[in-house]
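Entry 14. Structure prediction run on the chain below.
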Amino acid sequence: MFSFPILSLPPAKLELKKSEHQFLVKCLIRKKWLVLTPEEWVRQHYIYFLLDQLKIPSAFISIEKSIEYGKLKKRWDILVFSKSHKPLILIECKAPNIALSMSTFLQLLTYQHTIQGTFLGMSNGIENRFYKIITEGENKLMEIQSFPTWD
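Output returned:
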């Protein structure tokens, strides 16, 4: 059975319930009940961080939508849109027991190739990494301490 680890993200106000043999969480964005997997635990905490700490309106956050990369169908975890409705922040979430690795980073960059956000992030709830895409001159990736607030 999955236990709920304490994450480095701010504690989230989540609605949980038990259904037969599994826990469910009400998604803060989709407003529907989902099976509470370790990855979903991290994703919901991250969503709460975006809403509560960065003050991003929920209408500008998209969760687990499908994209095509070549002939592959992929699903991003979290995508935040700017006020002008352009991709702004792309985030990949992993379960707390999954280390953030080069493989995770390459997965994030695969999504970025299609989405073209300004900021990238990856998290397993314990470790969080943030990046900014610098487009002046050659495209560069700069590690940053956190994402900017919505304002």
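DSSP finds two helices and eleven strands in the chain.
Filed with the rest of this week's runs.
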